[in-house]
Design goal:
This protein has nine helices and ten strands. The chain is of the alpha/beta class and about 250 residues long. Strand 1 and strand 2 form a beta hairpin.
């Protein structure tokens, strides 16, 4: 049902004890959109993504992805999404090729297809040391491998939590180009990042969450409203009242 949004969230809440990590969240992400989901540490970004992937059940509210409701059609949804989690949940005792082939097989790809795509992705992401165990990967290499795994089954929706964290400039440029190409072919990307310059350069629309609630949402032009940068908007919205006080001993 391509006329439905990629993501539709209504009145979503997640409680831990009496504290709401996500509080009455309403969000619609159109298909083919590069969507930035921003907020300070502890605002509820990762909790939201975990609920969108079915890893964490919501306390209340509803989630629809690609026109299908969670958890009713969870398996079908998971076949059509690609995930880059905030912590790279990789198998350290496998090589990159073995891991990618395993992921491909988990998504139902025939073994020869999974192997061929795994090797192609290793070349694309410049992870050519095919005998190297994932345990020996740097943080940036792990992120690149996680993104490669999210691509292997050619998903319609990507959920990405800090995908550029620890990635060098060359690797980040490659990853950005790949993601933009996926959006051009009609995929939807839902991205969290603390690197606001990256979000400003890539995203069509942005929502800012603070203390579990969305405080601003709109297109990049709507949020910036003229000469402001995205950083200016972000600090004004979530950093109000947090002023710099110079320490006497640092003068």
């Amino acid at each position: 049902m391509p006329d439905t949004p990629a993501i539709a969230v209504h009145d979503l809440r997640k409680l831990y004890g009496d504290k709401a990590a996500v509080d009455s969240l309403n969000l619609v992400v159109p298909r083919g959109c590069f969507f930035g989901f921003l907020g300070p540490n502890g605002a509820g970004k990762s909790t939201t993504i975990r609920m969108l992937t079915g890893l964490v059940p919501p306390s209340s509210g509803s989630i629809e992805l690609l026109g299908m409701r969670l958890p009713d059609r969870e398996l079908e949804i998971k076949r059509r999404i690609g995930l880059v989690p905030d912590e790279s949940l990789l198998f350290d005792r496998l090589t990159g090729a073995e891991f990618l082939e395993f992921v491909g097989r988990m998504y139902g790809l025939p073994r020869p297809v999974a192997r061929e795509r795994a090797l192609s992705l290793l070349d694309l992401f410049e992870l050519r040391e095919r005998r190297k165990l994932i345990a020996e990967y740097s943080k940036g290499m792990r992120k690149r491998l996680a993104m490669a795994a999210s691509l292997i089954h050619h998903p319609d929706l990507f959920l990405m939590d800090e995908p550029f964290e620890g990635v060098d400039a060359v690797g980040a440029r490659l990853m950005k180009d790949i993601l933009l190409d996926q959006v051009r072919r009609g995929a939807t990307i839902f991205l969290t990042s603390h690197v606001l310059e990256v979000v400003e350069r890539l995203c069509d629309r942005v929502a800012i969450i603070d203390k579990g609630k969305i405080v601003r949402e709109g297109s990049m032009d709507e949020l910036r409203g003229g000469t402001e940068s995205l950083e200016d908007v972000f600090v004004r919205v979530v950093g109000a009242g947090r002023e710099f006080h110079e320490l006497e001993w640092l003068k």
